[in-house]
Amino acid sequence: MCYETLSKSETQTLISKVNHQKMARHRNIVRCYDCIVDSANTKIYVVMEECTGDNLAGLIASASRERRHLDEKFILQVIAQLTSALKTFYRKSNGKPIFHHNLKAGNVFLDSERNVKLGKPSYTTTNQMSFDNKCDIWSLGCLLYELCTLCRYVPSSEQKVLAEKIPARTLIKIPGQYSKELSMLLNNMLNLTDDLRPSMKSILQSNLLAEVVEEEAKKAQGRSELAKRNKMIRSARKNKENLTPGDPQLVMLDNIARRPRTDSQHTSQVDKDRHVRQLRI
Length: 281
Fold this sequence. Notes:
This protein is mostly helical. The protein has helices spanning about 10-25, 55-65, 70-90, 135-150, 160-165, 180-190, 200-205, 210-240, 250-260, 265-280; strands at about 30-40, 45-50, 110, 115-120. The strands form 2 sheets. It has a two-stranded antiparallel ribbon with strand order 1-2. Strands 3-4 form a two-stranded antiparallel ribbon. Helix 3 runs antiparallel to helix 4. The longest helix is centred in the C-terminal third of the chain and has 29 residues, at about 210-240. The protein is globular, with a radius of gyration of 24 Å. The two termini are about 45 Å apart.
């Protein structure tokens, strides 16, 4: 990003937002690793996690071409994961809240298990960034509508234009295959009055998302336990020579070494060995 046309204060705000993103550690947020300032060329380089999978925009386009609707449970999973990610992103930086303001289908990526990863926030430094987090709730509602109907909600983001196009208390309709609770959540998110939109906390605590949120908590616990186990294994391997016979960590390493490989692991190893032989030839 070039900051040549920005003032000194705007440049500092931009760097502050990038640094804030580095601190936002969450399984459903694209990781920001580093920020490099090139003063000579007035450019800032942001080093981010590579996303090799598709994004929601591609998934929606594919479903539209095939004329099939997305499963409600998947949609609820997307909303739960994005809401949780936004809550993490909203931590205050230097006493000031920083919001995402770039929530759209093309900026939400999918991993191999169809979990979402929220992409980079808006780095705009204009006054529009003074809006509160209810703006992101609106964007989340627009994304929810797009997931249900496979088309965008409104072409404009101007509040005045929206008010003219959408009269107050207009019921937003989605395909009948989706539950009334999902329709109600959507209508609450897209309320033209900011204060009447639900909070992140109330969305995650709703009965509609209860089952998905519980599953996400179990997955998070499993990842945490796996990370602890891997840490123990690395530590045990490092200190293997200093461990006494019968030590629990040494027993754990022996069990791992004796564990039978699956067919897929065996096939992978065979392919790897064949590749090495070819390189030697």
